[in-house]
């Protein structure tokens, strides 16, 4: 979402978040330097069952980020050192309302549906926002920021931007640090899959082009599900064409799940005069921020990345459950397609016709799902995308 639209849709985000939220206690675990329980104290409660649902008591850890940037909280399905030793991790990145507990629970459901309990560690980071903005992008019941946490603006983390404060860190670098920490705490990990939904998918689709190399011996994957917009590495965009003529209304091509239907998607350079910002960051790399380096290098990294794509078959237009009112409808977004499903199908055409990665990365459309992480990630259609050879 563009920052200019944030205030206008704040109430809607809160309503959406309330529907999706999973209750979670408000307190973070005690810091490592908290006073220890005396030896004479009563026996401690049994360890929390972190693999059943998100909870902060015993299942929400905190990572001290590099550069003294503060801490990043993250839910885990298993404490470090506990048996069995996981072989892979599924990190689920929350959406704009920062519904980390809900996203975590969707990841748990996906693992359970695939029969991989104990083999896959589920993780869900929580990018905190300073108090003055938090209610604009907060899920009721979710853990709030604590003293010492790294803080972002509502729309900053999803574009990979830096945190606030005297020691900023980009959201990309924070993710890199978390991946390294997971491998340190769970040394048996051999695959780390980062799966993002909605705004979380925007963050991860961008991150794939700028991610640090994973620890030695670890495979890093990105799964991008239903982002509002996409990052293109060339100045072209998908245009529906039928009988050699542009189609002004994509719905004329046929039902959305089968888009482009009776049309073809042709990658063409749009009229920049009509939409001057269409290829600027975060839609393109024409004005890539200097700290991210060279656009050609980013394109090469993205082309070589281990990526997979998901989209809900019903996330294709206005209506209940599709969060259409909070979807980016600016001209730069509209040049990618009218709605999330069509934008994903347009990006798939861009990959096939222009980017041409060395390994095909087809789009998996998930039947029956609207804009709902709890439908898309646990679906049978998503299992091979999320887990592949581990099943």
Written overview of the protein:
The chain is of the alpha/beta class and 391 residues long. The protein has one domain (3-23, 50-232, 285-390): Rossmann fold (3-Layer(aba) Sandwich). Residues 1-46 have low confidence and may be disordered. It has 11 helices and 13 strands. 25% of the residues lie in helices and 17% in strands.
Topology:
Layout: H1 3-6, H2 10-20, E1 60-64, E2 71-76, E3 88-93, H3 100-113, E4 120-126, E5 128-129, H4 131-134, E6 151-152, H5 171-185, E7 191-197, H6 199-207, E8 219-225, E9 237-242, E10 245-246, E11 264-268, H7 295-304, E12 307-312, H8 331-334, H9 340-355, E13 363-366, H10 373-376, H11 383-387
Parallel strand pairs: 3-4, 3-7, 5-6, 7-8, 8-12, 12-13
Antiparallel strand pairs: 1-2, 2-4, 9-10, 9-11
- Oligomer category: single chain
Q: What portion of the residues fall into strands of 2 or more residues?
A: 15-25%
Question: Cα-atom Rg, whole angstroms?
Answer: 21 Å
Strand pairing plus helix content: what structural class? alpha/beta
CATH topology: Rossmann fold
**Mean pLDDT, all residues:** 88
End-to-end CA span: 36 Å
The second-level CATH architecture is 3-Layer(aba) Sandwich
Strand order of the largest sheet: 1-2-4-3-7-8-12-13
Summarize this structure briefly.
By secondary structure, the protein is an alpha/beta fold. The chain is 25% helix and 17% strand. An eight-stranded mixed beta sheet has the order 1-2-4-3-7-8-12-13. Strands 10-9-11 form a three-stranded antiparallel beta sheet, covered by helices on one side. A two-stranded parallel ribbon has the order 5-6.
